[in-house]
């Protein structure tokens, strides 16, 4: 079974629009870690955020915000006032307590921000 | 701080040929990973090293893929013989490999794009 599901394959928005990328995960562990990575056209995945399962506080970093909902097993990512430089593929990932160094990635959401 | 270095950046080979990729992780990172990323998909773990020992190679096609991490630093991934379906980007990543409290995250290289014709 897929541990991380990103149902949105591709999203296109116009600059300055807000956009939310969805991530749903599946795990039986009570302690786990959730991540978002950005993959620009250059190819290198860049770390954006890490959340622990026991910390459900939502986080905001500039134009980026993350909504962690344990009840729905979701960890959604919102970009406010999107910019062309936000165009990339975004991956959600999960690691579990019994092997916290093993990361399960979703299939990614390609975000196109048009000027 | 230097990032994860990978080479070559691109490689084109014919099926049944062999190919090797090289990775030098961030200094001090105990854990090294090789991922395969097929176009339009997320990275799939091929092998995970902790220092120079293999932690997980359950998804490595061992009949054709091999990897080693001599001296627990840099690593090579080899495919022999290559098949058409091996066309993908091969990503190397590293992490500190400590405990969850060390805020583990992956640092990725730029990848090697392999085309098998």
Q: What does the model show?
A:
The complex is a heterodimer of chains A (115) and B (117). Chain A is mostly beta strands. Chain A has one domain: Sandwich (Immunoglobulin-like), CATH 2.60.40. In chain A, 0% of the residues lie in helices and 56% in strands. Chain A has no helices and 12 strands. In chain A, strands 2, 5, 6, 10, 11 and 12 form a 6-stranded mixed β-sheet that branches. A 4-stranded antiparallel β-sheet of chain A has the order 3-9-8-7, with no helix packed on it. A two-stranded antiparallel ribbon of chain A has the order 1-4. In chain A, a hairpin with a 2-residue loop joins strand 10 and strand 11. Chain B has 117 residues and is mostly beta strands. Chain B has a single domain, classed as Immunoglobulins (Immunoglobulin-like, Sandwich). In chain B, 0% of the residues lie in helices and 47% in strands. In chain B, 35% of the residues are buried. Classes of the chains: A mainly beta (115), B mainly beta (117). The interface between A and B is medium-sized, with 27 and 30 residues.
Short structural description:
The complex is a heterodimer of chains A (115) and B (117). Chain A has 115 residues and is an all-beta fold.
Distance between the termini of chain A: 38 Å
Broad shape of chain B: globular
Rounded mean pLDDT of chain A is 92
The major beta sheet of chain A can be summarized as: 6 strands, mixed
Q: How many domain regions of chain A?
A: 1
Shape category of chain A: globular
CA radius of gyration of chain B = 14 Å
* Oligomer kind: heterodimer
Give unreliable regions of chain B as ranges. Answer: none
- Tally of contiguous helical segments of chain B: 0
Could you please say which CATH topology of chain B applies here? Immunoglobulin-like
Give the domain tally of chain B. Answer: 1
Count every beta strand of chain B, where a strand is a DSSP E run of 2 or more residues. 11
